[in-house]
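Consider this pair:
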Amino acid sequence: MPTLSYEKFANTVLYLLRSCPGDTGKVKLVKLLYFADFGHYERHASPITGVDYVALPMGPVPDNFEELFGRLERDGFIRRESLPIPGVARPMEAFVPVGSYDEDSFTADELDSLTRVVDAHGRKPGNALVKLSHEEQPWRFVHAGDEARNGKRIPYLLKTWVRDFPNVHELAQAQQYIDAHALA
């Protein structure tokens, strides 16, 4: 089971914040972290940060992310800002990098994975990344739309194990077939 490396987590957050254009809100940041860790796990059988992820209604998030971001803020890595969003009553909680990431803390493969995430998702808003995260099989497998499963850990192994997990439409078709042919 992977173990959280606070140094690697801090450097990953700084890398993502420095590499993504524009403001990066909390929702966007937690999704980018998920895509970085689980994408790297899928290709290299190990995550970048080692943080545990849990299933919440808005998708996968680092376990205790508020505590982790608070520590990053106290340690002087990031600063929080409240930014107004046109047409939305509630402001966006954004993060600003205070320091620079240490490139030497990453392997070449980890930097490649981070670059892939920034290239694929760095310009997308947080709400678009929430939708994408809902398509991720590990989150779907653990959460399954059941609010009682909020906060359940999402094992990294699911990224490779459920690669061919049926989608919602395939499951519905299978259920219709079972019902029509009295197989249950």
